[in-house]
Specification:
It is built from 16 helices and 21 strands. By secondary structure, it is α/β, with parallel strands linked by helices. It has 4 domains: 12-165, Alpha-D-Glucose-1,6-Bisphosphate, subunit A, domain 3 (Alpha-D-Glucose-1,6-Bisphosphate, Chain A, domain 3), CATH 3.40.120.10; 182-267, Alpha-D-Glucose-1,6-Bisphosphate, Chain A, domain 3, CATH 3.40.120.10; 269-382, Alpha-D-Glucose-1,6-Bisphosphate, Chain A, domain 3; 385-469, 2-Layer Sandwich (TATA-Binding Protein), CATH 3.30.310.50. It has a 6-stranded mixed beta sheet, with helices on both faces. Helix 10 (270-284) packs across helix 13 (352-366).
């Protein structure tokens, strides 16, 4: 029986040489090609890009062969390319969509297959189901054309998407003040696609950019995986201290997510960074517009929404929910707990590069260090504390979900539960305005337990109670 390819929160991911094989990648590409043709996009261009994981360029070439074999034309990036740059290339080249060969922040042995629509944003869940339905059971039912022949016929064209993306960035943000600010910035590329970008964009002036983990190494040494959270960022935090830097900017493997370390070598969690991003746009830039957030991110955004008179839209976890809602509402910003933020005037896709530049601009405009920016935010909305535990789980997911529902806690960490929301997972709202979320990963056999609270001393107790509710302890 053929391996069933399922698209999770953000595409399909699998272990290389087990389920993630050339044959299965070709089958996935056929499903996407069939979907594009059904959308009336025969003969249109599709952008194909890839990351620095093992074999990514070869999987991208195989994908291009299948798309070309189905009558689509392919712009193939001429090297490993950040996800947001691929997304912008879709719009810039007026393409019908994109395929991105990347497993983003997954462990070293994985690779992945992301799909995007004509906006450069994630395809909504109903579209993903259509793609899945079009995936043939056998590679024998895949249409493809030899790469060399497709290139000769102009069906596959290699291109450099960077210049157009940079030109667009310069419309969104004035880079010169950052170059002139005299900051010392440590940029951790996590061995991924973000390498070279910050020196290229803000180097050459008084500001000094020190890059680490900026070559290709698919084993991702000095970290468990290229995900911008602790302990993966600890080497970068130490480099910040060693170099007396003003800030640490971290991009994940495909550079669509952002992590921040302050001047004292402390990590700033992504919920606080999202609060800072929205605060920067509303307060420093004077912009207004809806904010789109997943249920797993900060209620600081709800407070800012009330203060600045902008609506807040909550979605399930993943940009397959955020991107369509951003497009629908012309949102100012959209984001999620994992450190992915998208911005109006750009593409409805996470962009760790632009988010990092905006954070630096916030520092330059205010003349403040990251700790001082945080204090500005807390002066507005109060101090919030966040925690997260990822745990492998065994057994049937449905049985575990039933256990969670039946547990029905009245309190978590000593705080009263006021509401249960089941948009995506199990969100327990707490009396202090905080929350606990129990949710199954859409890409890995992992159960995630997250919480946010106004009480620093209750984070661990809330998380431990959450694990008990989930039947982990």
């Amino acid at each position: 029986m053929a391996f069933k390819i399922k698209f999770g929160t953000d595409g399909w991911r699998g272990v290389i040489a087990e389920e993630y094989t050339f044959d299965n990648v070709r089958r996935a590409a056929q499903g996407f090609a069939s979907y594009m043709l059904a959308q009336g996009r025969a003969g249109q261009w599709v952008v194909v890009g890839y990351d620095k994981r093992f074999g990514s360029e070869n999987f991208a070439a195989a994908t291009a062969e299948v798309l070309a074999g189905n009558g689509l034309k392919v712009y193939l990036t001429d090297g490993a390319t950040p996800t947001p740059v691929i997304a912008f290339a879709v719009v810039d080249q007026k393409a019908g969509g994109a395929v991105n060969i990347t497993a983003s922040h997954n462990p070293p042995g994985d690779n992945g297959f992301k799909v995007r629509n004509e906006t450069g944003g994630a395809i909504a869940p109903d579209g993903l189901k259509l793609i899945e339905a079009g995936i043939p059971d056998s590679v024998e039912n895949v249409k493809q054309i030899d790469y060399s022949l497709a290139e000769k016929q102009g069906l596959i064209v290699k291109f450099d998407p960077a210049p157009a993306y940079i030109k667009h960035l310069q419309k969104l943000i004035d880079l010169q003040p950052i170059k002139d600010a005299g900051l010392t910035v440590v940029a951790d590329a996590m061995w991924g696609n973000g390498a070279g970008w910050f020196p290229r964009l803000i180097g050459g002036g008084k500001t000094k950019v020190i890059e680490i983990h900026n070559v290709r190494n698919p084993s991702f040494p000095e970290m468990k995986r290229p995900e911008p959270i602790q302990p993966n960022v600890d080497v970068g935090l130490q480099a910040t201290l060693d170099n007396h830097a003003d800030v640490l900017i971290v991009t994940d493997g495909d550079a669509d997510r952002l992590g921040i370390g302050d001047e004292n070598g402390h990590f700033i969690d992504q919920l606080r960074v999202y609060g800072l991003m929205a605060f920067y746009l509303l307060e420093q830039r004077g912009l207004r517009g809806p904010i789109v957030k997943t249920i797993s991110t900060t209620t600081m955004l709800n407070k800012l929404g009330k203060m600045y008179g902008v609506p807040i839209h909550e979605t399930g976890v993943g940009f397959k929910y955020i991107a369509p809602k951003m497009t629908e509402t012309d949102a100012l910003i959209g984001g999620e707990e994992s450190g992915g933020y998208a911005f109006r005037g750009h593409v409805p896709e996470r962009d760790g590069i632009l988010a990092g530049l905006y954070f630096l601009d916030f520092m330059v405009r205010t003349g403040k260090k990251p700790t001082e920016l945080l204090q500005m935010l807390f002066d507005k909305v109060g101090e919030h504390f966040y925690g997260r535990i990822d745990s492998p789980f065994s057994g049937e997911r449905a049985a575990r979900e039933k256990t969670i529902l039946e547990a029905g806690p009245l309190t978590l960490g000593g705080l009263k539960v006021t509401e249960l929301v089941t948009i995506d997972g199990f969100l327990f709202r707490l009396e202090d305005g905080g929350w606990l979320l129990i949710r199954f990963s859409g890409t890995e056999p992992i159960l995630r337990v997250y919480c946010e609270t106004m009480h620093a001393d209750r984070v661990d107790a809330i998380l431990q109670d959450g694990l008990k509710v989930a039947g982990i302890k």
